[in-house]
RNA sequence: GCGACCAUGGCGAAGUGGUUAACGCACCGGAUUGUGGCUCCGGCAUUCGUGGGUUCGAUUCCCACUGGUCGCCCCA
């Protein structure tokens, strides 16, 4: 075998696609109910958009982007996340001039250059929503509620919301100072990457997995102690709404998101999964400065991104039954050349009438055709031989009961309608 | 970028330094000529990831490479 998919990518084969269709359908339906409208943006954007939007100290920008120059020598990047592109479109098309809040959702592939492992790929898929224009904590809660309802609609069990506030840039700056102050005496004991982060983004040290760093971080000050009245009040309100919505959440003051644009609310959806990495199935938060950063007006926003690949992984691990409809109404079996010829027309008639039907294209004998019909789970087999054809009749056999009756060829649509429509 | 493990037919999976590389599933064909699901029979690897080496001889031993899986970092 000479060609393979590029590392970190995978084909979604027909059987799998059924699951994806179903998941997408749930997303669409939930969004419809919450009045979020789909937006489709390009899979690549100017590199600068992500550098500005996502943040140049983030891992995404520092080491994970698929960046290339096109023939016009423009630097482009395969989108590593969905928000930046949506915000760009929102600004570019001056959607802020329309009715607010603007509520959008997207579904599609994202790209990050990383070593693949369980639940992590170089091309992965996200379903995300973004809403612009509202500072009401109720909409933060709605965003979280939509995500939860989506996950529940899939039948995913044991999903928890972890929530935190990352306050405002000003408060965070003060908090950073305190963190640096706290961590500096331990500097030599911290994990190497934690040391590197100390002055650039000390909050990232908080969720380190290095044992010693963890111990040290356990004693670090909490951002919750630095909140001003407004931030604390906002956070309280969001939690109140979540209580009202009966959404199970835990406050995790160590929760740090990997993107720079968040303000106030930050949250993650965590599934009950064995693979440690992949248990975070999505995350999001509020990003009040982002629209302006991208060149738009001052405009608050909230959203989330959910990892569909991980969700499907979780569905499989939990052995969730996926409702798949792939029934075959009628398989047309023919005997002889004339019948075979006629079957082409018959298939067309049946399909126009709305039935799902199939026939043999491999010159199989009757037995082979019957086997195929059975394998493809046909409900009925229409058996057409030379004699029947001459008399204008056809045999209809129900595979489930084994019963067979001869009817007039002209009556086949009515016959199937009666038997199948339920 | 670092580490661990793995690499046999479409899939799953045994196996041995030496004439024909088990088995299961799937697929194809057959079991009196125009009828499925069960059963039975038959077919289905002439590079056992690639390239080197050790050896009289390697799929089985060694090395490199590639790929996969999982973990670290980080994230969805």
From TrEMBL:
The keyword Nucleotide-binding applies. It is found in: Cytoplasm. It comes from Thermoflavimicrobium dichotomicum. L-histidine binds at residues 81-83, 112, 126, 130, 257, 261-262. Keywords: Aminoacyl-tRNA synthetase, ATP-binding, Cytoplasm, Ligase, Nucleotide-binding, Protein biosynthesis. Signal peptide: none annotated. Transmembrane segments: none annotated. GO terms for biological process: histidyl-tRNA aminoacylation. Homodimer. It catalyses: tRNA(His) + L-histidine + ATP = L-histidyl-tRNA(His) + AMP + diphosphate + H(+). Belongs to the class-II aminoacyl-tRNA synthetase family. GO terms for cellular component: cytoplasm. PANTHER family: HISTIDINE--TRNA LIGASE, MITOCHONDRIAL-RELATED, HISTIDYL-TRNA SYNTHETASE. PROSITE patterns: AA_TRNA_LIGASE_II (PS50862). Its EC number is 6.1.1.21. It comes from the Bacteria. This is Histidine--tRNA ligase. Residues 1-323 form the Aminoacyl-transfer RNA synthetases class-II family profile domain. Its main location: cytoplasm. One of its GO terms (molecular function) is catalytic activity, acting on a protein. InterPro entries: aa-tRNA-synth_II (IPR006195), aa-tRNA-synth_II/BPL/LPL (IPR045864), Anticodon-bd (IPR004154), Anticodon-bd_dom_sf (IPR036621), His-tRNA-ligase (IPR015807), HisRS-like_core (IPR041715), HisRS/HisZ (IPR004516), HisRS_anticodon (IPR033656).
